[in-house]
Amino acid sequence: xxxxxxxxxxxxxxxxxxxxxxxxxxxxxxxxxxxxxxxxxxxxxxxxxxxxxxxxxxxxxxxxxxxxxxxxxxxxxxxxxxxxxxxxxxxxxxxxxxxxxxxxxxxxxxxxxxxxxxxxxxxxxxxxxxxxxxxxxxxxxxxxxxxxxxxxxxxxxxxxxxxxxxxxxxxxxxxxxxxxxxxxxxxxxxxxxxxxxxxxxxxxxxxxxxxxxxxxxxxxxxxxxxxxxxxxxxxxxxxxxxxxxxxxxxxxxxxxxxxxxxxxxxxxxxxxxxxxxxxxxxxxxxxxxxxxxxxxxxxxxxxxxxxxxxxxxxxxxxxxxxxxxxxxxxxxxxxxxxxxxxxxxxxxxxxxxxxxxxxxxxxxxxxxxxxxxxxxxxxxxxxxxxxxxxxxxxxxxxxxxxxxxxxxxxxxxxxxxxxxxxxxxxxxxxxxxxx
Length: 435
Prior knowledge:
Strand order of the largest sheet: 1-2
Helix content: over 70%
Order of helices and strands: HHHHHHHHHHHHHHHHHHHHHHEE
Shape: globular
Largest sheet: 2 strands, antiparallel
Structural class: mainly alpha
Strand content: under 5%
Distance between the termini: 27 Å
């Protein structure tokens, strides 16, 4: 009898994996993925150009990470409030609000670079950063629409949309470089002025998402007739709408720590990559291509990594991400060749992708849809702290010890999530043995 029970238990994930995705969910997924593609084109201008813009405005390399840090700080401020908005009014409302703020911020940044105003630059970047922070709920919208056995796959579909953004970034910069002399504007300023051309289509796509992903999450059996929700005990954390209980749950803590360190490491490397390449004499267009390759690492493997996460579990993919992030940081910091540095930033992107997909799936596995926005907001707020602190720490490290110190620091910060992951008990993908 025990052997029969175990066989049925093991067969359940395979049976759930065969559940067909309804047309309505496919349609919403496509719209969200396309929106992610348009939004990603504008978002990558901060890592691509942020350090250069700050140095131009304030004349100090020690503040090279300031632009990325401002972006991280604003994400911290907005993460929980936007989660509250999406939990109350739906994911679409939060996404639309974020896109509108990004539109205003991009125009302001372009204007600031035109008139050489650091206060206007900082204010506009704050507005833009709030919009970007709200856009983080795109991945939650994707996870909401899929059952646990295909949840990471659903995330992969949407995050893969940022590949177009990776390709669009260099096109945006190259177009600005070509047009700038004709209209008498600096290329960096014009690049930001062109960002609304990609944000407005993204806004139209989000408006077309119906029903709201939160509605689907609350009624999965309605949209997946073949899906049978797992039986849950009365005290199961996934039934609880108490945010404090969800935050204290050990698997969620693992997701928070892994995401915090991977995001901090990536932000630091992104801020320093453009600076390092610039110091080695590479042109703006080459730097933009390197950052685009990094973004390809972040999102290009999202779908296969999502499927891998659903197949072998969240824990192994998180461990892989931590290792790749550390190795990539070393390559960026200690090498001088264009392709060696670019390979390092690509590996950091892949490592972040592993953590982003697996940690998001892990958290959503264990959180009630009614509070998911806020718990993901807590996760994003913690990651935003790292995004703000680590790039700022990198500047003094470079000034005092040289660029190589950033690589060793990148390895050190990936050790805590590995320690947390070694204690995580994942019985099967999406199922955890923790009280």
